[in-house]
Design goal:
With 121 residues, this protein is mainly beta. Helix content is 5%, strand content 49%. The N and C termini lie far apart (50 Å).
């Protein structure tokens, strides 16, 4: 039974962020870009290996979707009719190495075009 579990492949959803750059928790503001299909959701953490994160909060909420905080990350849900760019801003508070601080992460959300199947007649 254990060997079956070890041989099973794990599946993970692909990253929806295309340019996730690290922040420094030094009053800095960074920009990330997310691409997502209408009605889809994306979960993303914000911690880097050399940091302790104490709090992640929403500074400005999205207009064409909703954001739910999940531990030290977030889940963005795009509205089913999502067709134009959206954005939201998070404040991340913690400690980078031995220095406490805060960073702001501005996330631009772009709609991923839905696949349209054409029927041959």
């Amino acid at each position: 039974m254990l060997s079956l579990a070890l041989n099973a492949s794990a599946s993970a959803s692909p990253s929806c962020l295309s340019d996730k750059q690290p922040f420094e928790l030094a009053g800095d503001t960074i920009h990330w870009t997310m691409t997502i299909a209408p009605g889809a959701d994306c979960i993303q953490g914000v911690r880097w290996s050399y940091m302790q994160i104490y709090d992640v909060s929403v500074v400005s909420a999205p207009k064409h979707g909703k954001i739910v905080m999940v531990g030290i990350g977030f889940r963005y849900y795009a509205d089913p009719g999502f067709k134009e760019a959206d954005s939201f801003t998070l404040a991340v508070t913690g400690m980078n190495k031995k220095d406490p601080g805060r960073s702001y992460v501005q996330i631009e959300v772009k709609p991923r075009p839905s696949l349209q199947l054409s029927s041959a007649r």
